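worker-03 picked up job from queue 'complexes'. Input manifest follows; three sequence lines, order preserved.
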Amino acid sequence: MTMQALVQVLASGLLTGLIYGLVAVGLSLIFGLMDVVNFAHGEFLMLAMYATFGLVFVSGLDPIVLMPLVAALMFVLGGTIYFGVVRFAMRAKANQGMVQIFATFGLAILLQGVAQYLFTPDYRSLQGSWLGGKTLDLGGVYLPWPQVFGALVSLAAFGGLFLLMTRTDFGRALEATREDQGAVALVGIDRNRIFALGWGLGAALVGLAGAVLTVFYYIHPGVGGAFALIAYVTVALGGFGSVFGALAAGLIVGLVEAATAVVLPPSMKSVGVYALYLLVVLVRPQGLFGRL
Amino acid sequence: MSPDPSGPILRVDDVTLAFGGLVANRDVTLDVRRGEILGLIGPNGAGKSTLFNLISGVYRPSKGRILFEGTDITRLPPAERCRRGIARTFQVPRSFDSMNVLENVTVGALARHPTAASARRAALDTLERVELTHRAEAVAGELTPPEKRRLEVARALATGPSLLLLDEVLTGLTPSEAKAGVALIRRVAATGVTVIMVEHVMEVVMPLVDRAVVLHLGSVLTQGLPADVVRDDGVITAYLGERHRAA
Amino acid sequence: MTGTPLIAAPAVSPGLDDAARRFAAKRRRSLYVGALVFAGLAALPYAIRDVYLQNVLVLTLLYAALSQSWNILGGYCGQISLGHALYFGIGAYTTSILFVTYGVSPWLGLGLGAMLAALVALAIGWPCFRLGGHYFSIATIVIAEAGLLLVQNWDFVGGAMGVQWPFNPDSWATLQFARDKIPYAHLALGLFVATWLVTFGVAESRWGYGWRAVKDDPAAAQSLGVEVFRSKMAAAAISAFFTAVGGGLYASYVSYIDPESVMSFRFSLLFALPAVLGGVGTLWGALVGAAILIPITEISRSYLGGTGSGIDLIFYGGLVMVVAIARPEGVLSLFKRTRAARNEEG
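worker-03 finished. Artifact:
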């Protein structure tokens, strides 16, 4: 392999990895906050893609412009789902873990149904974004602009998240809850409010990822499944609850996937990622930055 | 091998437990005599519960050994220690909440009984002993907190222990409940079971125990007869702080 | 080493004897109820003449059996697997390949597939049972997906094309019945009865108590002498064993399998849901759940889903969500409550 080809693989792996990190971080954030795995995480992504699609259809604007609006809508959706579903699931006295899994699973199926009802099961794709089809030429290394843009959005989002978690009361409350669920009550923070904010934030982050993906990925009611799997692997790899573990693990997953695609046929590109996951489960079950 | 009947039933030998930089127990050495009721006291964070976790096998010490009946059990898993005769309760009761009271105790009895049928019989018998028979078919999750503590004791007793570790079983009880609890522990000890009890409330525990060990900041501060321990200056300071000592 | 006669009761009080008798009577009653229900279910396919409804019955019984298998690990031992499609696929593929390629009797194939699945479950359990709660569930999803990917790319087992069973005359020897669905209903029922009996037997045994203790509180369980890791491994192996038998039967029933049609994620979900709906960790939860869920799924697919409108998914997902939140003990607990209330009054 030539040097240039190697750089090409590395660069596209890193770009994809940054986007994977953005897809996964909301899942990790919510888990860290309240020990709940959102099994409808992929469907949040799917809804964000359809929201982008619908808004573009209605307004005629570029998806890039609509991105903040999509994130805001997803924020509202996440908070609503916390108040409407998750809050009740957390009250269960018996079979707590099971209730959480199946409540969010049921939600996932329901959201798929809603998307199918509103948009039909057809595959869709967005045409006509400024970025669509353009590539960035870096001395012979070609990077598609949509992915470059997505990676930049991801970096910006993680930067914002860092500021949020270190500079604001919300961030400190979040950190306190991560350390100790009881701490929230002690500090005098309303649990429901912080949890709802956490769900809103988690959904908004995956919403950003969804909006970015519409520029270069097809849209389909079942599209969440594939990304959810990557998100689980990423979060398990980085460590459940670790926000920046998700970023690091996203990069690793992106690189491993790109490297696998060089060696194996495209249909097997996930094999490397799965193998890596199994290795981590064997050697360090809590993930790279996680606590058991 | 047969253990020396005159030797200590349990020996904690220079045990240290550290989590990262945090030391929970430091250089703890103590002997527990066969048949005694030993009180393990000390202020919050003194390392009482971690010491229980070390004895019952939840944690492995970073340094030191634990000997039970003369055998080194430092590396044995909790289930094996239970089969050898160490039973425990938890500070926050951990009943099996989806099972009923009888089933909870049967789990314990299975440590000693080959079949579920004989274990169930033993469990019913244990329930009589701790006066919980009337709640045998109640779901554990629906018990009141004092009932849950009683269930924990029953479950531990059903394993047929020779050493019983009781973690704050008298805490949070009304005076009459505490009295019944004390009577139960006396009855258990009278059958030859060695008891170590962690307690916070000195007034309750001191009349009950034969000997007391005071832990402070993870180490043994002092040990001896309850009457001596209560008068110990170091204990008073550790427990109440400087200003009470002057008063 | 006990040194204490604490357990040896001097005289059995009448209260104890009474409790033991009540317990034995309850067990006997369960068996009678079981025999009655199974006899009724065995006769049912003769009463249904409609082939479509017979198909629904076969699937209902099969999913009841599969969910009962899942229930052993998920409901009794509390290890929520979302990757049982892997074991289902192992059963379906082992039976199919052995029969189609090597002419080995499907009966033998069922047994071999089941044993293979149990071994795979043990191999997976070895690392995964060190993981708690959600970690385990997610590991099962990923491993099952990896298995699906492997089968899709493995030419020896037909790759993405799958395996077609040859057309043969109806026979119990090859488990092939071209038109008649009644034998399949009985096979599925037989598997359900087997899983029910295993559950019935195990529930009140050393293993059963251990599993339920592990489910409720593993730390407390091991302090009472329960071998937590070994308990989980045993539950996983038994659960995978019967799931694979179900996979083999399913393959013979549909006589054509491909990776997506036996190993996709929705199967893992479908095995869990009936037990969750009916009541996890109960004897009858899986059957009750399957009897509600499978007809609804099949009928809503026929009448609502044909257009791809998504209404079937909305209904289905909504049902799962509402039951999980409103009735975490499953719909069976509705009856238990009322009975308990009656007893209280009486």
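worker-03 released lock.
Chain B touches chain C through 55 residues (CB under 8 Å).
The longest strand of chain B covers residues 22-32.
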